Every structure is written in C-alpha cells, then in structure tokens.
Amino acid sequence: MYTKEMKEAIKIEKSILRFRLVLVRNWIFNRMQETRLSAMEIYKKLDDWIYVAQKTEMDAVEEMIVVVKNAIEEEVKIQHELRINFMDFTVDEATLNYVNPPPPKLEALEEYREDRFNIPQLNKFLSEFETISKAKGDNIEVAWLASFIF
C-alpha cells in the first residue's frame, strides 16, 4: 500500500519537476531571444557608427589633401602644422613647420689637432704661396719652396 502511494507521489513530483523545467526552459528561451534582438540592434548601431566615423575621418583626410595639393601646385611651403584630431582637420597656426626667415647657419667648428693644420693656417699658407708665385712666377722649384717653409 505504501509503495503504491509512494509511486504515485513520485509521479506527481516528477510531473511538477517537468512542469518547472519546461517553465525555466521557456523563460530562458524568451530571454535569449530578447538578448539576441538587443544584440542585433547594438551591432547595427555599431556598424552605422563605424561607417559614419570612417566617412568623417576620410573627409578630414580629403580636406588635408586639398591643402597639401594646393601647396604643391603653387610651389609654396606649408608654414603651419596640419593636424587630424580624430575626425577633425585643423590648421594649427600656433605651431610652425619652419622658421621664416631661417636662422643663420653657424660656422663649422673644427677640432684642434697637433698633427694637422687648421683652416686659418691653411688659408695663410695659400696666401703666402700666391705671393711667392707672383714674385717668382708659376714655376717654383720644390726644393726652394721646401727650404722656405722649413
């Protein structure tokens, strides 16, 4: 008698468990469909955003290309720095690409060495040789020139 009632009770518990499992499965299925739809909407918005961002960046690059192309065709230097900040093309007038007029170049510094003549000494020798060649002519004897130097 107890076994029949126990079997009946187990059957009822199984059917209740099946019913609850079906409810949980249906709830999960509905939640997954809602999540899928919201994910699809988000991906569509991201695709649109990527398209708009890419188009805006390319428009900024096109604007910069026009400025550079005009400078090339007119053969002028671009004085101010050109910048693309994310989606905006700007000409930064606070930053100069070069200084106009350029600063004067400094004269070359040479390293002092005992075994070589420096530039002023070589210039002095050249002026002395020119003076000697004017006095003696273009055909100076090497031995005479060596005795003059040493």
The poorly predicted ranges are: none
Number of beta-strand segments? 2
Mean pLDDT value: 85
- Sketch the major β-sheet: 2 strands, antiparallel
Query: Strand-residue fraction?
Result: 5-15%
- Which structural class is indicated by helix and strand composition? mainly alpha
Describe this structure in words.
The protein is mainly alpha-helical. It has two domains: 2-96; 106-150. The chain is 66% helix and 10% strand. It has three helices and two strands, in the order αββαα. It has a two-stranded antiparallel sheet. A hairpin with a 2-residue loop joins strand 1 (80-85) and strand 2 (88-96). The longest helix has 73 residues, at 2-74. The mean pLDDT is 85.
Question: What's this entry about, in short?
Answer:
With 150 residues, the chain is mainly alpha-helical. The chain folds into two domains: 2-96; 106-150.
Features:
two-stranded antiparallel sheet; single chain; 2 domains; 3 helices
